[in-house]
Design goal:
There is one protein chain. With 96 residues, the chain is of the alpha+beta class. It has helices spanning 13-23, 79-91; strands at 2-3, 34-39, 43-49, 55-62, 68-74. It has one domain. Helices cover 25% and strands 31% of the residues.
Length: 96
């Protein structure tokens, strides 16, 4: 999902990630999820996943425009590799 921003930050990436996680728990236990955040000059990103399934949710806001992207990646990797993939995906994303 993509939405165009207006340059006004209304919520932090931590708040956005937490809101989506709590809203999409789907019977899982909150404490079982692995979460992470990346803040760079050009974007802020967050991700979460549950090691019990293959789905990783990624959220990003561009800086300074606040364009928003929500991506879902389904892949069979161990926890460390999934976290590395999410961090790499976020850090290498370029908004145009």
């Amino acid at each position: 999902m993509y939405s165009k921003g207006d340059g006004v930050q209304t919520r932090s990436i931590e708040d956005i990630t937490e809101t989506y996680l709590k809203g999409l728990l789907g019977g899982y236990v909150y404490e079982d999820f692995i979460k992470g955040y990346i803040k760079q000059a050009n974007l802020h990103g967050g991700f979460y996943f549950n090691p019990e399934n293959f789905r990783t949710q990624i959220f990003m806001y561009s800086k300074p425009n606040e364009d928003f992207v929500w991506a879902t990646i389904e892949i069979n990797l161990n926890e460390a590799d999934r976290e590395a993939l999410a961090r790499d995906f976020i850090s290498k994303t370029l908004f145009r």
